Amino acid sequence: MEANQRIARIAAHLQLSNLQMEESSALRIAECRAKGGSPGFKVAILGAAGGIGQPLAMLMKMNPLVSVLHLYDVVNSPGVTADLSHMDTGAVVRGFLGQQQLESALTGMDLVIIPAGVPRKPGMTRDDLFNINAGIVKTLCEGVAKSCPNAIVNLISNPVNSTVPIAAEVFKKAGTYDPKRLLGVTTLDVVRANTFVAEVLGLDPREVIVPVVGGHAGVTILPLLSQVKPPSSFTPEETEYLTNRIQNGGTEVVEAKAGAGSATLSMAYAAVKFADACLRGLRGDAGIVECAFVASQVTELPFFATKVRLGRTGAEEVFQLGPLNEYERVGLEKAKKELAGSIQKESSHFRSVVPHQETITSENNYLIKEIMI
Ligand SMILES: NC(=O)c1ccc[n+]([C@@H]2O[C@H](COP(=O)([O-])OP(=O)(O)OC[C@H]3O[C@@H](n4cnc5c(N)ncnc54)[C@H](O)[C@@H]3O)[C@@H](O)[C@H]2O)c1
């Protein structure tokens, strides 16, 4: 009897303290003066709950140039947002779930990073992703055109060689296209090239800069080893080994992950390196130069990756290729041939393949992933 009374007393006490806790936390939330973080840029990540999206969101939350971070996905964005919002860094994090919240996610953004889509599985090329990711990119870029037409867009979704031309078409149709603001992210190729070249040279990768031009798939990825900094020379075997490894770095990861996706952590690192460069450019810093896949007149192709100078309005200057050696000239011809096909693929398939308002719900995203395996 006494024991029962004690239990009842404890239960009543617990109920009361839960109530008090709820009241006091409600008070804390109601009264707290949310300052909106430090001054800085507003950044949205579309596809923020994915393999790339999550580490990318964490690294952007740590970036002192970011004041507001919007995390959008069609699944799981509330969980990722709650988790990251407990980090004691300056950026305020807000989550958005599903297409009805896309407009709120995008309104007022300075930079939009898009890693939304399906990754490669073993045996797939980046082009195999085209039909699915094209629809996703189209929908998201329609959102950008409507809600933040002046934002810089960093497009990660593969195949970048085709999704960037698709995004350009969407922006043209909406009347908001500014080639300076649409940037295909090829930084992972540069990051890999820096790492692999540093290994061969026995240097710290942070000291090595390798320009990588062309596109972001197979032979379209063209590292310019003759322009490596610090100036270095390579034997024909080293050139062959490095070029192949840089071109196939993505496949190396896809195969090692054996069905569990493609590069996510190194990609998030590369995406943040590039996004940070874009933000420093937006801030007005001088001399910010990175490689990116952009609208270009460097070759006869409408899009091409080269070094670009990032400034207040995006890619303000697109650099020429510079002097190439014979090996690179041959590589350039191969890259251009392949790239022409990928860009053409976009224009011939765009209207017939891409449904008008396609988006991937959690359910059919799951189904698509099943089909992909
Ligand atoms: N540019 C590069 O160098 C590079 C490197 C690696 C991967 N990628 C590409 O990045 C993309 C994402 O890869 P991942 O490994 O993060 O894939 P993932 O499947 O782990 O994540 C993709 C995320 O996108 C979300 N998504 C799907 N449809 C959406 C929509 N309509 N709106 C918003 N979000 C949507 C999914 O819910 C998921 O959270 C793939 O296309 C992949 O090929 C690019």
Overview in brief:
The chain has 373 residues and is α/β, with parallel strands linked by helices. It has helices at residues 2-31, 53-61, 77-85, 102-106, 130-147, 160-174, 187-201, 236-247, 249-257, 265-283, 326-353, 362-372; strands at 41-46, 66-73, 92-97, 111-114, 152-155, 182-184, 212-214, 221-223, 288-295, 303-311, 314-318.
Q: How would you describe what is shown here?
A:
The protein is globular and about 80 Å long. The N and C termini lie far apart (61 Å). Strands 3-2-1-4-5-6 form a 6-stranded parallel beta sheet, sandwiched between helices. A 3-stranded antiparallel beta sheet has the order 9-10-11. Helix 2 crosses helix 10. The chain has 2 domains: 37-185, Rossmann fold, CATH 3.40.50.720; 187-346, Lactate dehydrogenase/glycoside hydrolase, family 4, C-terminal (L-2-Hydroxyisocaproate Dehydrogenase, Chain A, domain 2). Mean pLDDT is 86; it is low at 13-25 and 352-373. 45% of the residues are buried. It is an alpha/beta fold and 373 residues long. A hairpin with a 6-residue loop joins strand 7 (212-214) and strand 8 (221-223). It has 12 helices and 11 strands. The structure holds nicotinamide-adenine-dinucleotide. The site of nicotinamide-adenine-dinucleotide has 36 residues, from helix 5.
> What ions, cofactors and ligands are bound?
nicotinamide-adenine-dinucleotide
- Output mean pLDDT: 86
| Count of structural domains | 2
CATH architecture of the largest domain: Alpha-Beta Complex
At CATH level 3, the topology of the largest domain is L-2-Hydroxyisocaproate Dehydrogenase, Chain A, domain 2
- At the fourth CATH level, what is the homologous superfamily of the largest domain? Lactate dehydrogenase/glycoside hydrolase, family 4, C-terminal
Succession of helices and strands: HEHEHEHEHEHEHEEHHHEEEHH
> How much helical structure, as a percent, in the residues?
40-55%
CATH class of the largest domain: Alpha Beta
- Beta percentage is 15-25%
Report on the biggest sheet.
6 strands, parallel
- Broad shape: globular
**Rg, alpha carbons:** 23 Å
Strand order of the largest sheet: 3-2-1-4-5-6
Which regions are unreliable across 5 or more consecutive residues at pLDDT < 50? 13-25, 352-373
What is the tally of helical segments?
12
Q: Count of DSSP E strands?
A: 11
| Computed structural class | alpha/beta
Domain Lactate/malate dehydrogenase C-terminal: 186-346
Domain Lactate/malate dehydrogenase N-terminal: 42-184
Catalytic activity: (S)-malate + NAD(+) = oxaloacetate + NADH + H(+)
Family: Belongs to the LDH/MDH superfamily. MDH type 1 family.
